[in-house]
Task: inverse folding
């Protein structure tokens, strides 16, 4: 049947792609998207471990995933709000141009 | 068994008076001397009472109390009453009170009179303490108090440097003797566990044979003999026997009553008294007694010869005392307690008389002490003169005077014991008669050579002299009829009468005086040069300078002493130099650390350079702060990676 | 009661520091009061001191740092009751002696009080940590007192005083830590218990001699014994006279007390094995102290060497305890130890008096050299009288404090080591000689011209001299009362020795 | 079971890679939505139906649309914003993420042993139990989530809103 390792490998790969996306892409929104992907990779793991747990009737896995999804949603909202505000300031969505953090 | 606790009062009364007088103003008129004489008369009254009790009861009465409890053992003090104690008490109190009366007027014009009488009281307390005490330790303590009192009294006129030096010399020399005494006490205490002479239970030092148990303790001498020898060393120090006699002639610096009291009658007799008191220890070994006798005779001879060459009236008497003490030691050595003590008692009388007489002569000639500047004083000071002559006769053992009886006894004892000693003693007695006649001829006959005009001393000084003169002459008869001799030593051996000895003693006494007269005839004295000066190869010079004993001592012991001091001083300096070097090293090290360590190493290389390096390397770090969010993210992932890796490796190594 | 006694001076020191500028006079009276109260407490202690009980009395024991075994453990027994009395007598005298110093009174009195606090603590503490703190604390005020108020060469004296003592106590600390590691306790009483049961040498194994010598070194410097006594003379000379009173009166006794408290009950075997070499060192110190004093030109240095000599007597007696006392009729060991305790007490008072007298002379004439004085007997009669009494007391004249203690020590030591005692009498002679020549040089002979007119003893000085003289006579004439304090404790401690 | 799992994982991988690689943002979002649906499938596979449904509802519906709006609001709808869509220093980024994958995640999985098949065969779906669980033991969590969501949304609006001239 479906061994747990496969699911974990899948989520690891998904996590890797998300991380690569964040580090590589220049576009802010894409970065946000990739963060969402990473978040989902984590959710997969939650459910997977819940499923293979000897006493799943506690439903901790799904519960936690629900909360995680909720938080992911909130985070996306705020993130995009920020992106729009930053975009209005810089007039570009290219993350490399945002260098206000570097003190002169 | 009448209680003898009143004996405690004998030493305590003068002690209390001394404490009292210490608080008086220095020049309270006559009250000080009056109080002092009163206390001593009270003591005299007590000693008469003691004498009556002692006559009545044969054996020794004691009363002891615990002075110190140390770890289960208690050191006890106490008083003992036997013939020795009562006779000495009588003599000391009687002679002492006479001398105190004399001192009352002699020190009339001195502004520190009360202080003088305070010291006299202290001395009386110490001396009576010695006589009464039943414990060796208490005797030693009073012994040192007497030493202190003599130090204070000799150095009474301390503004005279010579007096201060003499006082210190007296104290140190007696203290040398006292060290031997102390070691003797320690030895006795070590093996017997007690320091009491007589105890009711018979466990005292002198009663039970504890000490005489092991016979060969110290190179031939038995334990009790060793203790006796050590005690004898103390006696040598105090009574001025040969090696330690140097302090006695110098002690004449003190006022004359002091010399009379201390250096004639009582203190110097303390040594003889100690030997008499602990005679039981001496009896054990004949060779020790022989040693004492020989030392005594050597001292007697030496002192008599030196006395011939002296010019200071008090020094002559001092040397005469030294020789008479030697004589007593011979008496003790050959005969026994009675012989020595009998002479001690008679000697106390006529020597005190001679000293007081000399004092009034000096007083009369306005503090002139050199006999060459005196002469013909018999005419100007008849009473003192005749009393002085009486004393001289008694000292030279003129037949039927007090001195004659006691000297005769000792000569008898010496004759029986050891002929050689007898010869030396006889010759010394001859010399004694010689120098005494020399002194009298110098002082009393011919015409006055000094430039003062002598006058008779006041009555208060003459009275004691006259009383003493009576005793000097009549003392012998008085002693005979109260059988003083048997009283002193009921159990000791009696010397039978021996004709040759009597003949020799007469010959010595009269011959000495005759030759003395021939030598020191007043006419020859006028030449100013001493008749004996013609003696071959400078013997006379030798005699005059006291055989240079002081110089020899100063040279040998003095230098060793100084050398030891210097060696220790240099050793100290060496140690101090080492200390200074170590401190310098420590400081240099500290400075080194400070400079090299702090400035160069730490401050310069260490701190500044590191700051430089940090500044240079810093741009590497700042480069990371590009402001790019992506760069930051990369760094965070790198951090996460490193974290996981290290965690993993640590897990693997299984710390 | 003891902690009250100990902490009053500390509180006073604190309070003294905060007294406003203008109230110097009040500071002096406060200082005096703060020393008199402990005196009253101490007298109360003595009244309730039960002579027949040999063990500890008035014990106060609270755990302080449990995990390293440090407790606040305080108690009084035969060994230190006399010492506490000595401090409580000397403290007011020191304050009185420094009555009219001009500048910086408050710091002076505060430092003195910290010193007295340290001393009380050092003599009553029974746990090593707590005792060691006091042992070091005592050095600090003295260092500052010498440094701030000393005479001409004060810096070096203060420095060498401090370095030597701290060096010594460093070794002692190491030794005790080792002891702690091996036996697991800092408490003197338990260590004593171990020693009585004979287990200590076994526990320490081959560390036993090392620990013994490290502790010995710490006490060696404090007492001062021969090689390490070099700090003493300059420290005593340069320190102001009031400080020297404390220094010679009590501080040198701390070393001897250290021997009594640390070495006697805990290292009996070591004392037995090393008895003769230690005795030789004490004898050497004794002789050095006596003979080196012959050449001294300065009164205070001379007294410093006298005090070195007299404290060496204590230890000369103490070290004789190790020798076997078989076949003699007297209890040599008890004699020696009780003599040592009495000598500590007697010398404490006598030496303090002597130094105070030297202080008076220096205060009046401004110089300490013997050659500057002469013929003082006529100008200062009362001063001479007191000076001579104190000199004769330290000389060991009977019926004065010196003799009774010295007799006990000599009789004890002579019983077990006659040759040593014989040589030691040389020390007695030398002491007699140089003290008497000091009197001769100072008081007799003609008046030296350059000296200003010296005024005789003031009322205050009498107040200081009288108790010392009375105590000297009291100890001299009736020593059994003072020996009674330590008799029981000494007997119990000495059961250790075979 | 395995086959469905493989299909879904292929969809996931393709969706993920395409969101990164596509130059056109909108297409990227669409591939993201594909990815989300595949993940919902996986949830279904693992018998967590409610979660799968929630996933579809929230991520697919809300978040996907939200991102689209964001894209539109940032005027980049007209296609790729120039040739190079990768940030400078992307090489380092790739390398780092690869190293994270191969140095940490995969070895973690490899070294620890996991059950090859689920301990409990069937888990009957019980939304009621989930609800009860949520309402009883996780009430505080519910509260927090509620507050978090409201705060986040309001915050998002405040940030995004253009500054009024006060």
Result:
């Amino acid at each position: 049947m479906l061994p747990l390792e496969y699911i974990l490998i899948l989520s690891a790969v998904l996590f890797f792609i998300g991380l690569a996306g964040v580090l590589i892409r220049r576009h802010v929104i894409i970065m946000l998207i990739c963060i969402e992907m990473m978040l989902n990779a984590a959710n997969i793991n939650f459910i997977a471990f819940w499923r293979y747990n000897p006493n799943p009737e506690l439903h901790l896995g799904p519960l936690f995933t629900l909360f995680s999804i909720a938080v992911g949603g909130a985070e996306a909202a705020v993130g995009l709000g920020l992106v729009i505000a930053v975009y209005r300031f810089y007039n570009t969505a290219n993350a490399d141009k945002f260098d206000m953090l570097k003190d002169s | 068994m009448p209680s003898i606790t009143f004996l405690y009062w004998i030493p305590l009364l003068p002690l209390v008076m001394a404490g009292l007088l210490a608080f008086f103003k220095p020049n309270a008129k006559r009250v000080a001397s009056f109080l002092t004489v009163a206390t001593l008369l009270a003591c005299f009254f007590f000693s008469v009472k003691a004498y009556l009790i002692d006559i009545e009861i044969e054996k020794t009465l004691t009363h002891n109390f615990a002075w110190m409890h140390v770890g289960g053992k208690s050191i006890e003090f106490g008083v003992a009453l036997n013939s020795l104690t009562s006779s000495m008490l009588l003599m000391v109190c009687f002679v002492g009170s006479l001398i105190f009366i004399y001192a009352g007027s002699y020190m009339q014009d001195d502004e520190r009179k009360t202080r003088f009488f305070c010291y006299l009281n202290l001395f009386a307390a110490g001396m009576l303490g010695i006589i009464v005490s039943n414990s060796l330790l208490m005797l030693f303590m009073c012994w040192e108090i007497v030493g202190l009192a003599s130090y204070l009294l000799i150095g009474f006129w301390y503004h005279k440097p010579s007096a201060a030096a003499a006082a210190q010399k007296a104290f140190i020399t007696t203290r040398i003797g006292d060290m031997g005494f102390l070691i003797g006490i320690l030895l006795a205490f070590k093996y017997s566990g007690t320091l009491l002479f007589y105890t009711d239970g018979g466990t005292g030092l002198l009663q039970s044979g504890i000490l005489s148990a092991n016979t060969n303790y110290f190179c031939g001498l038995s334990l009790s003999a060793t203790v006796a020898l050590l005690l004898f060393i103390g006696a040598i120090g105090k009574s001025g026997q040969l090696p330690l006699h140097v302090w006695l002639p110098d002690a004449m610096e003190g006022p004359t009553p002091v010399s009379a009291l201390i250096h004639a009658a009582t203190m110097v007799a303390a040594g003889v008294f100690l030997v008499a008191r602990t005679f039981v220890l001496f009896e054990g070994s004949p060779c020790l007694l022989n040693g004492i006798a020989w030392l005594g005779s050597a001292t007697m001879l030496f002192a008599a010869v030196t006395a011939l060459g002296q010019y200071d009236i008090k020094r002559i008497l001092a040397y005469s005392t030294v020789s008479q003490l030697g004589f007593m030691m011979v008496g003790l050595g050959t005969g026994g307690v009675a012989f020595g003590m009998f002479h001690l008692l008679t000697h106390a009388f006529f020597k005190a008389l001679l000293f007081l007489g000399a004092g009034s002569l000096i007083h009369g000639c306005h503090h002139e002490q050199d006999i060459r500047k005196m002469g013909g004083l018999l005419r100007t000071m008849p009473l003192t003169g005749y009393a002085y002559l009486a004393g001289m006769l008694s000292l030279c053992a003129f037949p039927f005077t007090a001195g004659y009886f006691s000297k005769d006894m000792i000569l008898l004892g010496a004759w029986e014991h050891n002929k050689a000693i007898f010869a030396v003693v006889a010759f010394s007695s001859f010399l004694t008669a010689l120098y005494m006649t020399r002194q009298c001829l110098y002082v009393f006959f011919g015409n006055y050579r000094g430039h003062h005009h002598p006058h008779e001393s006041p009555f208060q000084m003459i009275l004691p002299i006259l009383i003493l003169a009576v005793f000097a002459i009549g003392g012998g008869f008085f002693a005979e009829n109260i059988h003083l001799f048997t009283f002193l030593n009921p159990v000791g051996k009696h010397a039978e009468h021996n004709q040759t000895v009597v003949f020799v003693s007469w010959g010595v006494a009269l011959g000495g005086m005759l030759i003395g007269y021939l030598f020191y005839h007043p006419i020859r004295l006028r030449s100013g040069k001493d008749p004996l000066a013609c003696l071959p190869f400078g013997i006379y010079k030798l005699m005059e300078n006291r055989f240079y004993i002081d110089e020899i001592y100063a040279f040998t012991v003095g230098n060793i002493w100084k050398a030891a001091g210097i060696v220790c001083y240099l050793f100290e300096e060496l140690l101090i130099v080492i200390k200074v070097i170590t401190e310098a090293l420590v400081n240099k090290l500290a400075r080194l650390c400070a400079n090299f360590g702090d400035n160069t190493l730490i401050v310069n290389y260490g701190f500044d350079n590191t700051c430089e390096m940090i500044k240079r390397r810093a741009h590497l770090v700042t480069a990371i702060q590009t402001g790019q969010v992506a760069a930051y993210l990369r760094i965070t992932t790198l951090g996460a990676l490193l974290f996981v890796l290290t965690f993993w490796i640590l897990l693997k190594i299984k710390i | 009661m003891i902690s009250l006694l100990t902490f009053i001076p500390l509180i006073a020191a604190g309070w003294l520091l905060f007294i406003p500028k203008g109230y110097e006079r009040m500071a002096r009276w406060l200082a005096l009061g703060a020393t008199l109260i402990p005196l009253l407490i101490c007298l109360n202690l003595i009244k309730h001191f039960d002579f027949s009980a040999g063990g500890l009395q008035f014990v106060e024991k609270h755990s302080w740092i449990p995990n390293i075994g440090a407790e606040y453990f305080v108690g009084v027994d035969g060994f230190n009751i006399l010492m506490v009395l000595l401090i409580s007598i000397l403290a007011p005298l020191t304050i009185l002696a420094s009555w009219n110093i001009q500048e910086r009174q408050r710091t002076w009195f505060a430092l003195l009080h910290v010193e007295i606090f340290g001393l009380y603590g050092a003599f009553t503490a029974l746990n090593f940590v707590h005792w060691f703190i006091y042992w070091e604390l005592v050095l600090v005020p003295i260092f500052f007192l010498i440094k701030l108020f000393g005479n001409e060469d004060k810096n070096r004296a203060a420095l060498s005083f401090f370095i030597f003592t701290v060096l010594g106590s460093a070794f002692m600390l190491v030794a005790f830590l080792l002891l702690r590691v091996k036996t697991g306790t800092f408490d003197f009483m338990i260590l004593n218990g171990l020693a009585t049961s004979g287990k200590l040498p076994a526990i320490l194994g081959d560390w036993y001699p090392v620990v013994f010598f490290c502790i010995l070194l710490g006490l060696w410097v404090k007492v001062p014994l021969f090689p390490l006594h070099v700090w003493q003379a300059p420290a005593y000379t340069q320190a102001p006279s009031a400080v020297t009173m404390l220094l010679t009166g009590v501080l040198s006794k701390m070393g001897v007390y250290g021997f009594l408290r640390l070495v006697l009950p805990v290292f009996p075997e070591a004392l037995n094995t090393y008895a003769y070499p230690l005795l030789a060192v004490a004898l050497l110190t004794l002789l050095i102290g006596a003979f080196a004093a012959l050449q001294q030109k300065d009164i205070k240095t001379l007294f410093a060497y006298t005090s070195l000599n007299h404290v060496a007597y204590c230890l000369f007696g103490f070290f004789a305890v190790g020798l076997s006392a078989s076949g003699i009729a007297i209890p040599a060991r008890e004699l020696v130890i009780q003599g040592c305790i009495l000598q500590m007490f007697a010398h404490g008072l006598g030496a303090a008096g002597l130094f105070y007298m030297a202080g008076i002379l220096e205060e009046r004439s401004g110089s300490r050299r013997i050659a500057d004085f002469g013929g003082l007997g006529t100008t200062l009669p009362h001063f001479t009288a007191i000076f001579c009494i104190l000199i004769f007391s330290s000389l060991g004249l009977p019926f004065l404090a010196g003799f009774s203690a010295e007799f006990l020590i000599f009789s004890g030591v002579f019983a077990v080591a006659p040759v040593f005692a014989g040589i030691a009498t040389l020390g007695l002679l030398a002491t007699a000689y140089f003290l008497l020549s000091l009197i001769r040089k100072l008081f007799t002979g003609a008046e030296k011209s350059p000296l200003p007119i010296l005024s005789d003893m003031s009322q205050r000085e009498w107040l200081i001299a009288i108790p010392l003289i009375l105590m000297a006579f009291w100890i001299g004439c009736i020593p059994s009362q003072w020996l009674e304090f330590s008799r029981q404790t000494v007997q119990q401690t000495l059961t250790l020795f075979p | 079971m395995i086959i469905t799992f493989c299909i879904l994982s292929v969809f996931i991988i393709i969706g993920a890679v395409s969101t990164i690689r596509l130059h056109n943002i909108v297409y990227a979002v669409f591939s993201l939505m594909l990815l989300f649906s595949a993940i919902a499938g996986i949830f279904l596979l693992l018998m967590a139906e409610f979660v799968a449904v929630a996933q579809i509802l929230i991520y697919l519906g809300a978040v996907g649309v939200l991102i689209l709006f964001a894209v539109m609001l940032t005027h980049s709808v007209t296609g790729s914003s120039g040739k190079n869509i990768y940030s400078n220093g992307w090489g380092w980024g790739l390398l780092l993420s690869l190293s994270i994958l191969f140095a940490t995640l995969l070895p973690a999985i490899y070294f620890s042993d996991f059950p090859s098949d689920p301990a409990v065969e069937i888990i009957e779906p019980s939304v009621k139990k989930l609800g009860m669980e949520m309402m009883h033991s996780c009430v505080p969590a519910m509260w927090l989530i509620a507050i978090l969501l409201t705060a986040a949304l309001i915050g998002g609006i405040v940030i995004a809103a253009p500054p009024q001239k006060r």
